[in-house]
Design goal:
Layout lengths: L8 H11 L9 H10 L34 E3 L6 E3 L1 E5 L2 H10 L7 H4 L5 E5 L6 E5 L2
Antiparallel strand pairs: 1-2, 3-4, 4-5
Membrane topology: Peripheral membrane protein
Pfam families: zf-LITAF-like
Keywords: Membrane, Metal-binding, Zinc
Length: 136
């Protein structure tokens, strides 16, 4: 009986042999800089050693821009869309204290109905990311 050889067996062996060949790592930044400046300059063209690297300025974006009690237009730091924030009001311990103080007057539910007595949490309407809180 004849032994069948897989048609890609020789190609697989060649690929494994190529992958096992050690290669030199790429040169470090300082090594490449010395290689560039060591090259002789050609007449007429600008010299590589005289070229200046551009200056880069890093600008830091505030991940949580200031928000107010109402919806705020801003760029979402998560999805990078220009959005108008979605506001969800949440009760805090101050809301509950106001409720207890107003309990004797019969208006104990009033702090829960007023947005000024609750915190305003801002969310992105596109991706749902939390943007910030306005504490009242």
């Amino acid at each position: 009986m004849a032994q069948s050889i897989h048609p890609y067996a020789t190609i697989q062996a060649e690929l494994q042999a190529e992958q096992n060949v050690p290669t030199a790592p790429p040169p470090a930044y300082m090594q490449t800089e010395s290689l560039i400046t060591a090259q002789p300059s050609t007449g007429g063209g600008p010299s590589v050693s005289n070229m200046q690297m551009p200056n880069f300025v890093t600008t830091y974006a505030n991940p949580n821009p200031p928000v107010g009690p109402k919806s705020t237009q801003m760029r979402c730091p998560q999805c990078k869309c220009l959005i108008k924030s979605e506001v969800r009001h949440r009760s805090t311990w101050k809301t509950h204290i106001a409720c207890l103080l107003l309990c004797c007057t019969g208006c104990c539910c009033l702090p829960y109905c007023m947005d000024t007595c609750r915190n305003a949490n801002h969310f992105c309407p596109m991706c749902g990311a939390f943007l910030g809180t306005y504490a009242s």
